[in-house]
Structure formats: C-alpha cells, structure tokens
Amino acid sequence: MTKRSPSASPEFSVREFFQRFPDEQACLDHIMTVRFGGTMMDCPKCGAESQFHKLRERRVYACPHCLHQIAPTANTILHDTRTPLVSWFYAMYLFCTTRHGVSGKELQRQLGVTYKTAYRIGQQIRDLTSKAQGFDALLAGHVELDEAYVGGRRSGKRGRGAAGKTIVMGLAERDGRMKAVVIPDVKKDTLRNVVLDNVEPGSVVSTDELVSYGLLTDDGYTHGAVKHGKKEYAHYDYRSGETFHVNTVEGFWKLFKASVRSTHVQISSKHMQRYLDEFTFRATNRNRVNGMFDLLVGAL
C-alpha cells in the first residue's frame, strides 16, 4: 500500500483543525503565508528584509524599520468582517470535509451566528470555490458530458423537461477535473458552445444518445455515445481504443440531486451556479482535503 504524504491525505479531523487554527493569530498567520509567503519578507516600501510583526488588536502586520503596514485580509471577504476568523476558517473546513454540502441552518448551529450571517458566509465561500477552480483551463483527455434537470416537478411520468427545473450540464475528465454550468436549453448550438468553451480540441468525448451532441465529430473531437434507451451504459470502441460511458457525470448528478433534496431542500436558478461550483470544486479535489482548504484560503 502506498503511503500518502500528510498534505495529500484526505484525513483532516476536527481536532487537527483546531490544533492548526486555535485562535485569530493562527488564522492571520496562515493568510499571510498563503498571500505573501509568510511574515519574513522584503518590505514593499523600504526594501529591507524584515520580520513583520502583528499590531496589537488590529489585523495588520508592520515592518519594524519603516512601520509600513500590510493587512492580510485587505481586499478579501474577510476585510471588514466582525465574525471571528476562526469561525470563517471552520466554515471553510466544513465545506471541504462534507459530501452533501452545508446548509445555512447548519452553519448557524455550528458557528453560533444568526441565520443571515450564516447564509452570507456560505454564499461567499461558494464564490471562493469558483475562484479557486481556475475555470480558464480547458478540460482535456477523455471528457464525459451529460446534462440534467434539477429542481421543480415533472408534470407527468415521462419526458426530460419540466416547468420550474433548471437545466445544467456537467463535464468531467476521466480521473481529473470537473465543471458544471447552467444552460438555457439542450439545443445543438447551446451544447456545442459549452463544449468548445471548456474542452480542448482533439479530446475524446463521451455522451449519451441525445442528438444535440451529434455535431461534435465535425469540431475535431473523437465522439462516442452510449445508448441508454437500449440499456447500454458503456461500450468499447476498437477503432479508437476508448471505452465510452458517462458514469462519472451521472454519479455526480446523483449525488448533487440527493444533496439538494436532503441538505438544501431547494435551490433557485439564480444561485444554482454557485452550488454547482461548490460541488465540482469538491469533486475535483476530493483526494486532498488539506489542499482543498488551502485553495480556498488562497482564493481570498
């Protein structure tokens, strides 16, 4: 069995968290390390290499030579917050260690704040997950695509669409990164634009039999489709040497929908992208909880 390094370990217990961040000073020092490389640095004003020291009762570090000040929380969501930094860090820890998400009510109970404050903290952390994922990098290799309908109620037993549902599309690298976006419809142009914007040309692409995906071969992708209507869930293509299926994305949608029902009850279309970013962030970094936490701090 391969021994994992501490930084790559998915284990990050509550006890370990509070040993690492027991107070405000520890949180500030960590932000200084992530944003500026630590408290030992070349002063931006006088140029001297100095050990910056924290000023008493202020979230500010000062150069001992020229007294130039650096506020590690400046220009971040923590800049003017009255909520203790330990509470913010613990909220981020909960987002990294959960599987089904964290509701505003759960944050309210865990942090001992008002629901309004808890809800705001949750939404701002979801925004951090979006920043931390680096959406400019294209997916590559073998990428699975699948769309889903979230929320609302079906008017009948059959049919894909339903009034009140939000249409979403997931894209997942095999054993790699994942993205998910809200889309207005499942027309060819819509799906094609999502793929062109997010998947590197020349990649292998797996989809289901939805006809809107049929144009991908013309765009230079190696495209294979599984026919769910005929009870086919994977097939091997001898010409390309690839196994085509969308099991990774379908598993993601199964978890996401279950989480919406159990944890959040309902998500509006207005905020759906935030929750998608949260879940894809965890899916992409699921094997490195400590690293996931530091990514969130870095996204500040």
From TrEMBL:
Coiled coil regions, renumbered to chain: none
Domain ISXO2-like transposase positions: 138-284
Protein name: IS1595 family transposase
Superkingdom of the source species: Bacteria
Transmembrane segments: none
